[in-house]
Specification:
Elements (H helix, E strand, L loop, with lengths): L15 H6 L12 E6 L4 E9 L2 E8 L3 H15 L6 H9 L8 H15 L1
Antiparallel strand pairs: 1-2, 2-3
Helix pairs in contact: 2-4
Organism: Sulfuracidifex metallicus DSM 6482 = JCM 9184
Protein name: NIF system FeS cluster assembly NifU N-terminal domain-containing protein
């Protein structure tokens, strides 16, 4: 079974609460994934990723704060769908989420995740 893509319906999440209320990319299943632990000022998060052919799947585990959870959910979704390839693209899209503010901590998390999975 492929780990690439998400088998949920094609929903569009546009607000911060959409990402919080409908988490789709948090996982505890790590088999087959590359894993990196990221330590922020407030939390420890594991970023999991796998590449199959030209597709990249990203998931996360841990107990991120609400701000990090929105950012991680959005990043995982957009990377899976091929909508972002760079940190700049990710930060621009994050700044367009209604009810979400891109803080310095979010910027650092995004840079770390993107450099990890895009290597």
């Amino acid at each position: 079974m492929s780990k690439i893509g998400h088998d949920c319906c094609n929903m569009t999440r546009k607000t911060a609460s959409d990402f919080l209320m409908k988490p789709m990319y948090k996982t505890s299943k790590i088999e087959g994934y590359n894993i990196k632990t990221i330590r922020t000022k407030r939390e420890i998060i594991q970023v999991l990723w796998i590449k199959e052919r030209d597709k990249l799947a990203v998931r996360y585990s841990g107990m991120p704060c609400l701000t990090s959870k929105v950012a991680l959910e959005a990043l995982c979704e957009w990377i899976d769908k091929g909508e972002v390839r760079t940190t700049k693209e990710a930060l621009t899209k994050l700044s367009n989420i209604k009810g979400f503010k891109v803080t310095k901590e979010v910027e650092e998390l995004v840079r770390e995740v993107m450099s990890t999975v895009r290597g």
